[in-house]
Amino acid sequence: MAMCWAVLKMAEHPEVQAKVQQELDALVEGEAPTQEELPRLDYLGAVLLETGRLWPAASALLRCSIDTDLKVGGYKVPAGASIVVPIQAIHRSTEAWGDDAREFRPDRWKRTSQSLSGLPGVVSKTKTVETELAKSSQAESAVEHDEGEEAGRKLVDLTYAASLPLVGDEKSRPIFTFGGGPRSCVGRLFSLTEQKIMLATLLKRYRVELVPGQGPFSQSIRGFVARPTPSPEIILVKR
After folding, report:
1. In the chain, what are the helix, strand and coil shares in percent, each to the nearest 5?
2. Binding of heme: at which residues (predicted)?
């Protein structure tokens, strides 16, 4: 579904598509990017990060503290209670992301895409999500032995620290496209690499356009997955 949204956004924003193709023409020699070329595709990476921000694979997550009562952000969470993390709502929050939170704007990532190298979650110019996850994994056992408010505070700290991208010199923003903390998605690197290869290979050969008369598009959510509505029809124009 991530690729569906990415291709739709390319068709809806030809100026963004043109910038991606300029980058591909300059940096990719063959019909598909090599392993060495992939990390250089900064703007393509920014497009995928922005697509994942607005339309994450899951619009929400469920979490549960099975054995322990927790106090998180001043709220008591009894053992066995399920907590819904509204990922898409957080990603579109103007309080967190500014007045343009609902706009598709890959340039918001552009200045940090080299540091990100296709991986969301940079928390500083020297720390990546991988280093934070390693720390989180080491600290997880300590959390499991704590109870109540202290355990809740540590869980929030670990999850939040592993979910903050640094956007240039601006303040950090919460991003949970692949979850966060020690239980974030283990397939995030594979997913982003796969998306980069697929979209780069497509846009290297073709320009994507919408069949005339379509739109505007909204979204429908089924099983936590956001789908474009109505289903878009795409034309591939050989470059």
Report:
1. 45, 15, 40
2. 185
Q: How far apart are CA 14 and CA 208, in angstroms?
A: 9
- Going from N- to C-terminal start, the domains of the chain cover 2-211
Q: HEC states along 100-113?
A: CCCCCCHHHCHHHH
Helices (H), the chain: 2-12, 14-27, 42-54, 87-91, 94-97, 113-116, 129-145, 148-161, 188-205
Residues contributing to the annotated binding site:
185
- The pTM score is 0.73
The phi and psi torsions of 52 (rounded to 5 degrees) equal -70, -30
Q: Could you give the 3-state DSSP secondary structure of residue 152?
A: helix
Binding site residue list for heme: 185
Fold of the domain built from segment(s) 2-211: Cytochrome p450 (1.10.630)
Instruction: Tell me the per-residue pLDDT of 45-63, one tens digit each, with 9 for 90 and over.
Output: 889 989 989 998 888 888 8
